[in-house]
Amino acid sequence: KMDDDDDVPQLSSHTLAALQEFYLEQQQREGMKTSQGFNQYSIGSIEEDWQLSQFWYSEETASCLAKEAVLAAGKGGRIACVSAPSVYQKLKEQDGEDFSTCILEYDRRFSMYGEEFIFYDYNHPLDLPENLLPHSFDIVIADPPYLSEECLQKTAETIKYLTKGKILLCTGAVMEEQAAKHLGVKMCKFIPKHSRNLANEFRCYVNYASGLD
C-alpha cells in the first residue's frame, strides 16, 4: 500500500520549530496585552506586518534613536516620525517629557494613537493635512519602507517639507549615495538593530552633529 504521507509537503523540523516559536511568542504577547499594566505604546503592541514591509527596531535601537531625537529637538521640541513607529512608541513611553511628537504612517492600525497619527503614503509625499505646517518640526526621523531610490526620493520630499533642518534617516547601507544626494545626510557609526534580523545592512544617517557617532 502506498504511503499516504508521500505527497504531503513536509516542513523541515527547523521551520516547524521556528513557526512554533513564533506562535508561542504571539500568544505570550497577546497574553501580555490583556494582563494589567500593558502599555499600548510598547514595541510589539502592534504586530509587524511584513506585507507592508514593516520591521520593528530592537528595544535598544528604538530607545537610542528616541533619546537622540529628544536631545536634537531640544526643550519643547517637536519630533515627526515618518514610517518609524517603533521610535514613536518609545517616545510616547517617555510621556510627560518636554517635547511633542506625531507619527506619519501608512498602516492605519496606528490610528489608535489618536490625533498624533497622520495617514501617510510615500507615493503622495505632500498629501498632508493642512494643520501640518511646513518646517514645523525640530527633527524628522524617517525610515522609508523600501530600499529603492524612488521611495527615498519621495520620502525625502516629505522630510524636507516637515523639518526645520535636522534629519535622522534610517535605511540600508546601500542607500548611502542616494541619501547624501536627496537629503544631504551622512552615515553615522551607530548601527541600528531590528527585533528580527534583516538581510540588508542597516544604517543611520544625519545632517547635524548627533550623539550617534
List keywords for this structure.
Rossmann fold; Efm5/EEF1AKMT1; single chain; nucleic acid binding; globular; 213 residues; alpha/beta; seven-stranded mixed beta sheet; Mlase_EEF1AKMT1/ZCCHC4
At CATH's second level, what is the architecture?
3-Layer(aba) Sandwich
What form results from the Cα inertia axes? globular
Structural class: alpha/beta
Task: List unreliable stretches of 5+ residues.
Answer: 32-38
The helix/strand series, from N terminus to C terminus, equals HHEHEEEHEHEE
**Distance separating the two termini:** 67 Å
Supply the number of structural domains: 1
CATH class: Alpha Beta
Strand portion = 15-25%
- Quick check: average pLDDT? 84
By CATH, the superfamily comes out as Vaccinia Virus protein VP39
Strand order of the largest sheet: 3-2-1-4-5-7-6
CATH topology: Rossmann fold
Sheet with most strands: 7 strands, mixed
Task: Report on this structure.
- The protein has 213 residues and is of the alpha/beta class.
- It has a single domain (50-206), classed as Rossmann fold, CATH 3.40.50.150.
- The chain is built from five helices and seven strands, in the order H-H-E-H-E-E-E-H-E-H-E-E.
- A seven-stranded mixed β-sheet has the order 3-2-1-4-5-7-6, sandwiched between helices.
- Helix 2 (59-73) crosses helix 3 (85-93) and helix 4 packs parallel to helix 5 (176-183).
- The N and C termini lie far apart (67 Å).
- Mean pLDDT is 84; it is low at 32-38.
In short:
The chain has 213 residues and is of the alpha/beta class.
Write the layout of secondary structure elements.
Blueprint: H1 13-34, H2 59-73, E1 77-82, H3 85-93, E2 99-105, E3 117-119, E4 137-142, H4 149-162, E5 163-172, H5 176-183, E6 186-187, E7 202-206
Parallel strand pairs: 1-2, 1-4, 2-3, 4-5
Antiparallel strand pairs: 5-7, 6-7
